[in-house]
Write a structure and sequence with these properties.
390 residues, Serine Threonine Protein Phosphatase 5, Tetratricopeptide repeat
């Protein structure tokens, strides 16, 4: 994050280069190219602005720049100076004011798009951040789709566009990170999920896109918005068939509901297979990875056990529930649910003593399954007592 912030400070403040750098500037710019000849009044005024360290003095010099040389296309430079000044001063409303003026003059100004996303994110205005994120996405898309200019070589133009996009990559990733974080931190669940899904839609190639869809699907599940959960999860799996989180989510959902059991079984088995070859993610210790992958495998096994329970394959259900049990212990809710399910498979096999032990396990931790497990234990004990009397 820190490295990207440095890039923002250096790249966005230095878009318009002096004489001798015209070709490089043109090659690295998405948006209108504004040349500033070396030694010109604009060059001298801009040098004076950049040299000023006192914020009040800098703003006075920007005002002077805007009122004297900041005419025509040079107004783009003036507005950009205002934007960067007001972001540095954390006066975000003024930054938006001049950013919007800059977009009127240069709708494809990539650096302004990044700056506006940054300002909105820093202000904590997620709605505005995504409005500017839409603009930024459209800017990049229009540039990617630009046809070869008349008289240019197609291969050369393709190479030039690639260089421009490569030079913009870090700043684009920085803006995407800001948008992802803004969406993720949204407190209201359905809004959070909607922002995350929208993020993946406007930046499908972002390194955060799949993660955004995964969190969106899980959030929709928590909010009991089943249609959106299924739509998001299936959409992500269409893009990434081996997405572990979505395979487990669908296996868990369908097995619990007793619907599409073949799909639930296939998803659970595929999740287990994917885990068999999965590599430890960067940033996790060996211990953390062992626990995380174990919990994921436990969830998949428990879903598979539930599928077999629904299909009346009680022997298979018991086998999977028992294998899942130690893996799920770090998560009280998942562990209790697994033991509660195990008890019913054991009851179907007439293994009353083992079923009571599983129910005791389910009731031993605080979870939504505690009271149902206690109630079932009470009923079993009462039935055993009644049978003994008779």
């Amino acid at each position: 994050m820190r490295r990207n912030k440095v890039l923002i400070g250096t790249l966005l403040m230095g878009v318009w280069l002096v004489a001798g750098g015209f070709a490089a500037a043109r090659a690295q710019t998405i948006g209108k190219y504004v040349p500033i000849p070396a030694g010109s009044d604009a060059d001298k005024a801009l040098t004076e602005v950049n040299a000023a360290t006192d914020p009040t003095q800098k703003l006075a010099l920007i005002d002077k720049f805007a009122s004297t040389v900041g005419q025509g296309d040079m107004a783009i430079v003036a507005d950009d100076l205002y934007v960067n000044h007001y972001i540095a001063a954390k006066n975000y409303d003024k930054a938006f004011e001049y950013g919007d003026k800059l977009f009127e003059l240069d709708p494809d100004n990539f650096n302004n798009g990044v700056n506006m996303v940054r300002a909105a994110a820093e202000k904590g205005d997620t709605e505005k951040a995504f409005a500017y994120g839409d603009k930024l996405s459209a800017i990049v898309k229009r540039f990617q789709d630009k046809p070869t200019p008349e008289g240019n070589n197609e291969a050369s133009w393709t190479d030039q566009k690639k260089r421009v996009l490569d030079s913009a990559h870090d700043n684009l990733t920085y803006a995407q990170q800001l948008l992802f974080n803004s969406a993720y931190q949204t407190k209201e669940g359905n809004k959070r999920a909607a922002y995350l899904a929208h993020f993946a839609q406007i930046f499908p190639d972002s390194p955060y896109a799949d993660q955004a869809l995964g969190v969106a699907a899980a959030t929709y599940q928590q909010m009991q918005n089943t249609p959106k959960m299924l739509e998001t999860a299936n959409g992500l799996l269409a893009k990434d068939p081996n997405n572990l989180g979505m395979l487990i989510l669908l296996a868990d959902y369908y097995s619990e509901k007793g619907e599409q059991l073949d799909k639930a079984e296939a998803s659970a088995k595929k999740a287990i297979a994917v885990l068999g070859t999965a590599k430890k993610p960067e940033g996790l210790t060996d211990e953390q990875w062992t626990q995380q992958s174990g919990l994921q495998k436990g969830l998949a096994l428990s879903a598979l056990g539930q599928v077999y329970l629904q299909k009346k394959n009680n022997v298979g259900a018991v086998e999977n529930f028992k294998t899942a049990s130690p893996l799920l212990k770090p998560d009280a809710g998942s562990y209790a649910r697994n033991q509660y399910r195990l008890a019913f498979a054991l009851l179907n096999l007439k293994k009353i003593t083992d079923a009571k032990a599983a129910l005791t396990d389910a009731a031993s931790v605080n979870s939504p399954y505690k009271q149902p497990a206690l109630d079932k234990l009470k009923a079993l004990n009462a039935a055993v007592a009644a049978k003994a009397k008779s």
